[in-house]
Amino acid sequence: MGKGMRAGKKPSAGGAGNMQKQMQQMQMMQKKMEEMQAELDTKEVEATAGGGAVSITVNGKKEIVKVAIKPEVVDPDDVEMLQDLIMIAANEALRQMEDMTQNEMGKLTGGLSIPGIM
Question: Taking a C-beta distance cutoff of 8 angstroms, is the pair 86, 54 a contact?
């Protein structure tokens, strides 16, 4: 008889069933997360800079899908300003998509920080 065991007592088998239930829950969560990521991949956000002179649209895969530049902002003598506006709008669009992704995934994970998920 092992230490701490009493005659007539059997080791509890509930641990294996509980572990299986947890694995099923994790698989369900993983499936939901994959579905949510597929849905997020189809979403788009748009950000602007320079009072709407430049707008950038980013999809859920964090790819730039559209760049719009108003003709009046194109000044051959001030290319740096246009470059700055594009960079500002692109970074803002990417930040907004990241926020949306984390917000949606956070709803599913209940705010848990799971490495490799987000």
Answer: yes
